[in-house]
Amino acid sequence: MTERTHDLIVVGAGPAGMSAALTAASIGLKTLLLDEQPRPGGQIYRNITAAAPSVAALLGADYRHGETLTDRLARSDADLRFGTAVWDVARDLTVTAQQDGQSFRVQAPQLIAATGAMERPSPIAGWTLPGVLNAGAAQIALKSASAIPCGRVVLAGAGPLLLLVACQLLDAGVSLGGIVETAPTANRWRALRHLPTALRAPAYLAKGVRMLQRVRRSGVPTFSAAASVRVEGNERAQALAFAAGGKEHRLDADVVLLHHGVVPNNQLSRLLRVDHDWDPVQLAWCPRVDAWGETSLAGFRIAGDGAAIAGALAAEPGGALAALGAARALGRLSAPACEARATPVRRALMRQLRIRPFLDALYRPPEWLSTPADETVVCRCEEVTAGRIREMARLGCQGPNQTKFFSRCGMGPCQGRMCGLAVTQILASELGKPPGQVGAYRIRAPLKPVSVSSIAASADTAAIEIFEVGENA
Asked: pLDDT per residue over 8-17, tens digit each?
């Protein structure tokens, strides 16, 4: 067992991770914050400390809010290590990470995973063509490199981020060929019953209205309740074809941006084998956590969108609550003192959660997204199609892990990140079972690609075990 190095380790420097580290350091916990990016901010505030003023202005006040966290973090007593990729965590909460080409180990009795969210995969015909990427990837390019897509751009999918990226690209001077919304019309009726609660979050609703007005003023063609969506092209994307309003449409495109919401990034929680539940509302796996973010593994906590999708402003109080729970577990805060500090934080969290049921209902992905046509590639790494997955179900595969033996589905560099949800849903449909019974991929170290030289350069190479002997894949 690695010798204890810290009281608390936080993985991820987005809003939840920064908030957790700030709260813990303010209590006096010896806190280590690890993040793969060269600077703090996570995905939502990526590059906020180095972004050009013109880019920061383009991304708006929501993006610039990240400066309030990064400024405080720079002045805190937390131990900050950026450019550090966590690639293994043991059940005793020993963390193995890589920095500057060398692996090292740290250990603490409390660990907070603030790994955030990832975009839901959109397995449609043609989604593997060059020129097709997630809308969030286009936003990352803008934040990281002040880069925007060239040529005619078409956006397709559902979710607030789709509108946000559309507005940001319009403001950046990008030529948009159309916005194709795929959320079914029935979603609007489902969302109506949540409107009274959503009205108690007027800032969110006002922001949505402003984005819709911006798109309408631009004159960009907008389509709703689209189905049969596919990307057409030979060597690269050339058009987006779809059905909407009882007609077939085809929009010329050099770049197609897809987005169907975000889902918790639970690779780390899957690695540690903690309890997860299938969320029928968000259509994703969510780790089971208590009010302090603690999972079924004592000392291991999850904060922010890694626990359930709630947004950046909800992630901040979520991270603070997880840190308070860690401090209480370590005996650094009494129960009354912990509750006193937690009360206003919980109120802040509840204010941010008011809009969530409305958004979840309004932007629920269409059912056809989880039942792609047989010829559609689902596992991009190993080029496994939806039809092959259905065939494996007919051959007796009862869950995603068995598909690995039949086809290597989920065994590529992405470790099932891109195909995991789709594989679960396709198998569930084919087997006539709920996704919760079908299960998810079993995740194993390394979480990220790591070089042999990095392991060899570690000061404790003998203790690093990449493979768990005797355990099924």
From this structure: 999 999 999 9
